[in-house]
Amino acid sequence: MVSKQTPRIYAEIEQTRPFARPQHVALVTLTRTADVLRHALERDLAPHGISPEQYNVLRILRGAGKAGHPTLEIARRMISRSPNVTRLIDKLVAGGFARREQGTRDRRQAFVHLTAAGRRQLETLDMIVEGAREQLSLTDRESAMLVRLLDKIREGMARPTAAERGRASVERGAGPPPAAQPSAARPDWYEKEILRSGDGGTGFSGGD
Hints:
The protein is mainly alpha-helical. It contains nine helices and three strands. Helix 2 (22-45) crosses helix 6 and helix 3 packs across helix 6. It is globular, with a radius of gyration of 20 Å.
């Protein structure tokens, strides 16, 4: 039975056995929370036919102003890593929310710009996302503390994807990147605790 002092994640995933370490509880809780946040955003944006990733792209284009951004720069700035940035942009262009123009210096490179329709759509979506922000129920101090902790987690866990290594290599003019090394095996506690509890997926999806 889960007591009042037991983290709520135990009841949510029906975990009856205690996790081996507090860090395991933190990892599962963080993963679960990310999934809840993503589904909430998807639910709110769905009536407008926009995915969270497309919303992110629209905001990036608004920040770019009249100069716009090439596709690789948009990919670099996105919150969620996506292997299908071109397809995301294609859908925005098809919907009239963005447009592509050839670069003036290098006509082989296309720049993506936000259209007037995209700006109007973004204003509507901003109000929806602002409503989701209010549901976080965090004080300014709690928010700052949470950001510091999340920064610490990313610093310890973030690794560049193969696509990101390839882009960096091309930009340096160093040719193709070296083959990726096999990732380390998952620790025993991951298999025993997370997978057994049915929470093995991260819930993070880069594509739409």
